[in-house]
Amino acid sequence: xEEAPAFPDSGAAMPGSPEMPAPVPDVLPEPLPVLAGIPGxxxxxxxxxxxxxxxxxxxxxxxxxxxxxYAVRVAMEKHMGPGVAWxxxxxxxxxxxxxxxxxxxxxxxxxxxxxxxAHEHLNQAMVHAQGKAPAVPGVSKQSAGPAMQMASGGSAGxxxxxxxGAT
Length: 167
Prior knowledge:
Elements: H1 37-55, H2 61-77, E1 84-89, E2 95-100, E3 105-109, H3 118-129, H4 146-151
Antiparallel strand pairs: 1-2, 2-3
């Protein structure tokens, strides 16, 4: 058995040891906002269903927050239904899947969540929830089909053709 190397005893405690706790950062991270309405339902579900599963894959708490916030953003960007029926993490911890109450399923790679901060993901989720989503390049509101017009705040007008009722 190999012995640990001997270090001269300087008498000073090591950072992180019981005698000298790790330093507290000067600036504590700003807590995430609690969203209202449908985004808030997705946020609560993401926190409840994803947190422990991501922590089991040895993810840092700040990274868990990013993934949870990104799940909310994806739900709003994809115009998922009125609530979450299921949300979970793959066995290898590399993907998150979610299904809304209508049965529509989406998934994303966990790594995608690290492209922006948790705050930015939640801000973007709210932008999409309020119908202020950026326009799809090359698609005008007038030429978009009913689904696209509904997603941008218009009405499909009960039409089955590509000429939905724009507002």
